[in-house]
Amino acid sequence: MHTWKFGDDIDTDAIIPGRYLTLYDPKELAAHAFEGTRDAFAREAAEGDIIVAGRNFGCGSSREHAPIAIRGAGVQVVVAVSFARIFYRNCIATGVLPVICPEAETITEDEEITLHPDEGYLTAGGRTLAVEPVPAFMRKIIDAGGLVEYAKTITELELCTK
Amino acid sequence: MAATITEKIFSRRCGKEISAGDVMMAPIDAAMIHDITGPLAITKFREMDGTTVFDPSKIIMLFDHQVPADSIPAAENQKFMRDFAAEQGIVNYDIHEGVCHQVAVEKGRVRPGDIVVGGDSHTCTYGAIGAFATGIGSTDMGFAMKYGALHFRVPESLKLTTNGTFQHRVGPKDLILSMIGDLTVDGATYRAVEFAGDTISRMSVPGRMTCCNMAIEMGGKAGIVAPDEVTRTYCGGRTDGSWFDLAADEDAAYVLEREYDAADLVPQIAAPHNVDNVRDVTKYEGTPIDQVFIGSCTNGRFEDLAEAADVLGGRKFAPGVRVIIVPASKTEYMKALRSGLISIFVEAGGLVMAPCCGPCMGGAFGLLAPGEVSLSTSNRNFRGRQGSTEAEVYLCSPATAAASAVKGAITDPREVA
Q: What pLDDT, on a 0 to 100 scale, did the predictor assign at position B283?
């Protein structure tokens, strides 16, 4: 497991440049993840790696290609101080776990990370850092395995108008 | 209970009192898909065992990012969407009408008080006419197209009040850039941004669209202006006449309130590579530029083109500067054509393209080489957004773009005309 450390305001154009948005296959998208800004990621990222970032990770576009590219590269978890809203939802819909950790900036690339999101913490390099729980309605989607799988479990929509 | 515009929209739609923080499955009034995020949305719709969309008349489909198709994969994606539209009975504006956000509003497909989702982050533009509109990803869109509903957390709101009259050559784009500079790129994350004050009341719907369009650049889930007489006049001939009193209550709860004075504002620039890297234009005056782009869902409307042409005043664009002008829609293009603006731009040395997103997303044309500098009226200056990651993009108003295109360097439009 390797930790990929990023700073603040990592935007969706950096995660997957616009010229690759005709692609939809996770592996094909992963081959261009962070192209031009962190070229080593596409070459070296492996299954089980974790991204750790600062504030506002995933700002910008609604392109779901961004979490798909990250997942295609093997990353199932992104730990960040904060996330942009659409990216956060897109992670949950596509099977990437977004973990909000206010002290994520203290995590270094050589630290082993163990996640306990339901208990509200993670450990990194032996330290215990608090993480925010995933909202209950998002939890249902994650537990189903993503929004596609969740949709298949619905027999009747519980609309707010009822 | 006192309510914000957003709380009123959700309460009206749900038939009961709704407050910020409530989580619910809410019905949607329209869903917009385009050529970039649409194919994946359709794929997800199918994966959810979707067979027929909830209501074809509520799906807005068009192509704007890669228009006309600039590669075989782009052509395949557009064909895939055309086939889906035909199968489902969805009206497809295809490549003919222009940029999604402009077309959705000008065709009357979005109404005040609607809850709208779009497969594009700048869907918040529709807040200009008092809709609650927000950008979503493709899997969420697949769900929305199947069920006609989506799960929402009703956001808290920010209230940004602007009073006063703009100086000559200062306008809505300068205002929203200064607000983003003030609040930063994540200052409104998960919030709805209400624009209020007498400056906004006097502002046209196109000007309001410019402001609401960039709410996402401060992290906002939506940007919104309470519908008023300006909205009523604009929407009157376009929609079925639905009309709702959505003005926020005076004692509505906001997480943040700020006041701005339009008269104090000078032309603004967002410098590379963050939208909140905003300074007065005077700080960057004289910076040489290689390309100028006037267009996009932020500033490609007729009044933007008219302002640019007025600044130009019959002069030529500076030698060595590539000026790309892209009207936001066919309607706006035809207004510009009939009023002579297109001739002015072409004779000045500009390239006027058919309505589409243009160089904004770096999709179809007008890409930048390493080391080049672009001045753009679009909404994002992210590294690599318009081509090489070693190029630089500055954001500005149409007036500043035109003045700079004449001089060949970033220029304060108040000095030109």
A: 98
CB B405 within 8 A of CB B314: no
What are the structure tokens assigned to B367, written together? 């890409």
- 3-class DSSP state of A144: helix
Whats the size of chain B, residue-wise? 417
| B18 to chain A: closest CA residue | A160
Measured in whole angstroms, how far is the alpha carbon of residue B16 from the centre of its chain?
31
pLDDT in tens, A84-94: 999 999 999 99
pLDDT over 90 (residue B240): no
Judge: A22–B73 Cβ closer than 8 Å, yes or no.
yes
Q: Angle at the Cα of B29 (from B10 to B188), degrees rounded to 5?
A: 50
State pTM to two decimals.
Answer: 0.97
Distance of CA B224 to the CA centre of its chain: 12
Residue of B nearest to A91 (CA): B137
- Rounded alpha-carbon distances, angstroms, from residue B401 to B269, B303, B310, B319, B397: 10, 14, 12, 15, 6
Q: Give A-chain residues touching B190 at CB under 8 angstroms.
A: 85
Pairing of strands B268-270, B278-280: antiparallel
User: Which phi and psi angles does B394 have, rounded to 5°?
Assistant: -105, 140
In a mutational test of the A interface, the residue from B28, B138, B357, B390 whose CB has the highest number of chain A CBs within 10 Å is B138
Which structure tokens are listed for B3? 């309510």
Task: Decide if the complex's ipTM is over 0.90.
Answer: yes
CA distance B383 to chain A (A): 7
Q: What is the mean pLDDT of residues B88-115?
A: 97
Set of chain A residues whose Cβ sits within 8 Å of the Cβ of B389: 36-37
Q: pLDDT at position B18, please?
A: 97
Out of A85, A147, A157, closest to residue B189 by CB: A85
Best to test chain A binding among B186, B381, B388 (most A CBs inside 10 Å)? B186
Cβ–Cβ below 8 Å for A89 and B185: no
A-interface mutation test, from B19, B115, B151, most A Cβ less than 10 A away: B151
What distance in Å separates the CA atoms of residue A116 and residue B417, rounded to the nearest whole number?
62
